[in-house]
Amino acid sequence: MMKNKSEHSFFIPVMGIGFTIDSPAKVAHLGINSTISIVDDGLMEKLREYYCNKINIPFQKITKNVEDFRAKRITEYLNTIDKVVEDKYDEFKNTITEKYDEFKNYIDILPDSSTLKEKFLSKIKDVQVFDKMKDWVKENLPIGSIDVNIMTKLDKVNYKKGEQLPVEHNDAHAAFRGFANSNLESSIIFSAGMNNRLYSYIENFEDFYPTEDNYLKKKIVLKVSDYKSALIQGKFLAKKGLWVSEYRIESGVNCGGHAFVANASPLGYILEQFKESKNCLIDTIQEVYTEGLKTKNKYFPKEPLDVKITVQGGVATNEEHEFLMSHYEVDAVGWGTAFLSVPEAVSLDDNTLDLLLKSEAKDLYLSEISPLGIQFNSLRTNTQDVIKQQKIDEKNPGSSCPKRYLQFNTEFTERAICTASKQYQKLKIAELDNLNLETKEHTTKYDTITNKSCICTGLGTASLLVNNLDTKIEGTGVSVCPGPSMAYFSKKSSLVDMIKHIYGQKNVMTRDKIHMFVVELQMYLDNFINEIKNTEVITKREKNKFRKTFNNLKTGIDYYKTLFEKFPKELRNLKELLEIESKLLKISY
Asked: Cβ neighbours of residue 60 under 8 Å, at least 6 residues apart?
């Protein structure tokens, strides 16, 4: 497909497994970048059949009996979405040039920083001129990127007839290969930290190396939580002749989905580090990159390739968006949770949408339901957890584990199983019963075991429900993973209205919002307090960990105090910031 460039200063990041699985088919023709999760090949196979039927192209099922079926399913799904987007884009270009008012509306919702908008407004004054510009419009209308996301830790070992398959058939490796073999000219986003074997595997695919005109057909994006991580991962890849085109800075807790609370490093402070050190980062990586390409006897660019710094995690207002863009000089801002109120952009069933729109702050929380043992942003009363509780009440806890993507526990078995599965929970409860604990302690530990939820099905089911597809394997339960900012969006929005909200042309929020920096700090503080409270014995190691968290929060608060005083109009929650500082200083451990 054609090369792409976005005129927008926002993008739609990956959400869950299924909520953005076909978002490019909904928004790419409008020049909006969005991201597909490529975890669930079975889900993609069902949706591929759906889209093939919709656009009248042949569909041949790829069964599990086919060699390398996971990678092939992903490749074919991405190629199908690419075809859907291309057709929709061509239709959009061809019809919009016949409708001046519609194209004017399209231009109006671009940000003022858009070069296309500037050129269009300078060239056109009336409809007659527009009629002569049709060719220019067709040639210059941008298309959004069809990006994909892999959570690097989801790299489960796979077996065939009882024999362990080679590492390239691990889940993340196969998913990566599915993208690498696709027709897409876009980016793969690696989240959740470094996977050395997976990163090394990228070397095998030519699309990730530069051509002599300095073009990368496929690009690498790293989600990072701090500058040090970006530098380490960037250098590791550069040594192999692989360039990181974007460092996507993500809030550890305020982003929806899994939360990574370990260091409690405030987002604004991290962004300041990137702002100050971006050139140093690029220069350092360029030197290593050049040597890496020379070692492989490949062409190497004389100057650094483009590098973007982007950010996501909790943004919900135009003021926040503009401050991130102007003060930290980021290239784009990810808007995730807010788009869960936009059915035109995501795959979300009516029932879950209704639950989300009715949710308040108390309904959105960091849960312990993920089988990965990582805290997980969740919505109380989501239907997957309701079904889970029904099974617990019936004394039959646990999932049948139909997808098996989160099988990482080897506590009771040689081959890994999932902690949300019936198999694991039955074994763990039996072990618990043998301890003969007091009723209260037994109940607490029992609840901890059975609290794990089958999120690898729940996070994808909505995309099947909204398209009226079969859910016999998955069931009808939906897990949804919004960030806290969902509480501020209680009305369904159109895509146009949400874009206007992002650019300050309209307000679709129904409640006043505390600044994203303060919300994140409060989340970190709450988690810190709970961690201390739930630690039975505070060892020297625990004390050192707590001290590091305390110091990170205090450093962040001191940074924010200076920032909030400097920008009182843009950052109006100094009072709430000082209250968080007061609570932090009262903590003892």
From this structure: none
SS3 string of 387-414? HHHHHHHCCCCCECCCCCCCCCECCCCC
Q: What gap in Å lies between CA 526 and CA 542, rounded to an integer?
A: 17
pTM here?
Answer: 0.96
Q: How large is the angle between the packed helices 574-585 and 540-566, nearest 10 degrees? A: 160
Element (H, E) at 275: helix 267-295
Closest to 73 (Cα-Cα) out of 23, 29, 33, 21: 21
Bridge partners of 367?
376
- 221 strand-pairing partners: 189, 246
Classify each residue of 183-203 as buried b or exposed e, where b means 16 or more C-beta atoms within 10 Å of its C-beta. Answer: ebbbbbbbbbebbeebbebbe
CA angle 260, 456, 47 (to 5 degrees): 125
407-438 exposure pattern, b = at least 16 Cβ within 10 A, e = fewer: bbbeeeeeeebbbbbbbbbebbbeebeeeeee
pLDDT tens digits for 512-524?
899 999 999 999 9
Residue pair 28/138 in contact by the 8 Å Cβ criterion: no
Residue 413, both tokens:
């078995």
C-beta separation of 478 from 461 below 8 A: yes
Closest C-alpha among 50, 39, 45, 46 to residue 76: 45
| Predicted confidence (pLDDT) per residue in 117-172, tens digit | 888 777 776 556 666 777 777 788 899 999 999 999 999 999 999 999 999 999 99
321 burial (CB, 10 Å; 0-12 / 13-18 / 19+) is buried
Please say whether the beta carbons of 33 and 144 come within 8 A: yes
Q: What is the average per-residue pLDDT within 305-316? A: 98
pLDDT at 41 > cutoff 60: yes
Q: Which residues pair with 11 in a beta bridge?
A: 334
The residue with tokens 């989240």 is 191
- Can you say whether residue 454 is alpha, beta or left, with left for phi > 0 and alpha for psi between -120 and 50 degrees? beta
Helix (H, G, I), strand (E, B) or coil at 103: helix
Q: How far is Cα 75 from Cα 78, in angstroms, rounded to an integer?
A: 5
For residue 82, which of 29, 119, 31, 155 has the smallest C-alpha distance?
Answer: 29
Query: pLDDT grade, residue 4 (50/70/90)?
Result: low
Kindly tell me the burial class for residue 467, based on how many C-beta atoms sit within 10 Å of its own C-beta (0-12, 13-18, 19 or more): middle
Residue 52 half-sphere exposure toward CB, CA atoms < 13 A: 16
Instruction: Name the nearest CA neighbour of 255 among 570, 523, 580, 22.
Output: 523
pLDDT value, residue 108: 85
Are residues 78 and 148 in contact, defined by beta-carbon separation less than 8 angstroms? Answer: yes
H-only helix segments in 97-148 = 100-108, 115-123, 127-132, 134-140
Residue with tokens 């909520």: 19
